[in-house]
Amino acid sequence: MKNLVKKIGLGLVGLSLIFSTSAIPARASSHAEAPLISMDRFADNTDTYAFRSVEAGREGFVTLIANYIPLQEPSGGPQWFRFDDTVLYEIKIDNTGDGLEDVTYQFQFKTEIVNGETVLGQSTVNQDGVISNLTDPDYNMPQTYTVRRVDRRSGRRGQLIAAGLRTPPANIGPRVTPNYEENLGLPAVYGLSNGGKVFAGNRDEYFYIDLGVFDALNLRAPLTPTGGIDSTKGYNVSTIALEVPIQDLTRNRAVPSGPTAPDAVIGVWATASRRTTRVIQNDSSQLHAGDWVQVSRLGNPLVNEVVIPLRLKDAFNALSPVNDAVAAPFVLDPEIARLLNAVFGITIPPPPRNDLVAIFATGIPVNAATGPNYTTFLSDGQPHEYLRLNTAIPITPIANMNRLGLLGGDVAGFPNGRRVFDDVTDIALRAVAGGTPFTPATNQAPNNQLGDGVSANPEGPLLTRFPYLLPPNQGNQPRTSNAPLFEGKERTSKLPIVDEKGDVR
Predict the structure, then answer these.
(1) Range 482-490, long-range pairs (CB < 8 A, 24+ positions)
(2) Which residues contact 124 (CB under 8 A, 6 or more apart)?
(3) How far apart are CA 56 and CA 196, in angstroms?
(4) Boundaries of every domain in the chain
(5) Tens of pLDDT along 6-43?
(6) 141: closest CA among 109, 173, 185, 163?
(7) Ranges of H-type helices in 117-225
(8) In degrees rounded to 5, what are phi and psi of residue 273?
(9) Would you give the distance in Å from CA 487 to the centre of its chain?
C-alpha cells in the first residue's frame, strides 16, 4: 500500500503543477470522471473504441476512435469547439502484453485565423458567409493537423504519415453550413498511403447513457432495455478516427492465423498530454514549453469513473498501463458492486473479483464458458487496463450485431474491443453485479438483467462507413430540453424572479 500511495502521490504532484497553470472551466459531464480533468475539457478523453472495420470491403482493417471534449452544445458559438492546439492527442497500442505502447499514433492541431478583424469566430462573411467546402474563405478559423506513427522502427520522433489535413468546421446551422455531411464531413475523410483512412472533427455524441445512474443508482428502468433517458442526446463530441491494416498493429506485423494465435490480440487506449509549463504574457498570448505530461487516459469505458476511488482518479489518468498493478485492489473489490447490493438487494460475488480482473485487466483466456476459439488474453502476468481486441475474430455484420456483445452471444463485441454500437453501460453493470457466465452462482435475475433503460442511440443508426459516427448535431436548432420560460407576457415557469431592486418575487 505504501508503494501505491507513493506512485499515486507522484502522479498527483505532477498533475497539480500542470493544472495550476492551465485549468480551463468545464461543464459538468459524466465523462469528466476525475477532479482535474473535469476542469480541462479540451484534453478530456471521453470514449475509446477499437474494432475490426465493418464497412463493406474493409474487413482487413481495424478502426480506432478516440473522442474528446464531452457534451458539446451544438449552438455553442461563435467559437464553437475545436481540438486544442496545445494538447498532444494519442492512440496507443500494446501488442506484447507488457503494458507499454508498441505503436503510437500522434495527432497535433494548428488553428489559423483568416480574418482577425471580425467580431465573429469560426465563420464570418469573408465572401458570402456560407462555408461550402473545407477551403472556403468563410471558414474563418480553419484547423489543420498532422499524424505521426511512433514505433520501434521509427524511433522516438516517429514517422510523419500525414500533414496539412483539415478538420471540418462545426455544423453551425442551415445558413452557414448547408448540406454539412456532403460538403464538409465526407471531404474530411482522408486516405492514407497504407490504404487506411483518417478523420478528425465534430461528430454526434453516440455514447448513450442515463445519467440517473449517478443519483445513487436511481435508474428509471433498471431491469428493462427501455424506459431510460439518453442524457447525451443532442450533444456533439470531437472525434479522432483512424483506420489501419491489421498487420500494422500486430506483434509480427502480419495478419494472425486465427483467434488463438499468439499475435492475435492487441491492447488499445487513448491519451491526452500537456506541456509542463504554460506562461501567460502581458498581451494575453501564451507560451507552452517543457516535456509532455499525460493528463487524460481511457481504455475500457467507465473504469476510472466507477472503479477507481475519488482520491486516486487524477493520478490514474496520469498512469501508464504498465503501472496498473497499483490499482488492482479496487478491481478486486469494487465499491460499485457493494452499492448494487445495497440498492437492489442482490447477492454479488465475494472478493477477490478475479472475473473483473480478467475482463478489464488481463484479458479473457480460452475457457469453457466462451469456447476454444475465443480469447482476449494479453498480459505478461500483470494487470494492464485497456481495450483488448482480437483481430482474428470475424466481424459481425451491422444488421446482426447484438448490443450486449459477448453477453449477447456476439463475440465481435465488447469486451472484444469496443464498437460504437455496444451498450457498455448495461454490460458493465451486469459484469460488476456478477451477471455473467464467469460467475455462475450470480448469473441469474436480476443480476444479468441490470441496465440503465437506454439500449440504443435515439438519434439513429450508425453510419455503415468510416468514421461510423453520425454527423454532428446542427446548431441553430431547438433541442428537446429547450423551452421558453415565458410565452408572451404570461409567466409559465415556477422559477423565482428577481426585480431591478434585487427583491425576489
Answers:
(1) none
(2) 114, 115, 118, 138, 140
(3) 14
(4) 2-449
(5) 444 444 333 333 333 333 333 333 367 888 999 999 99
(6) 109
(7) 180
(8) -130, 150
(9) 40
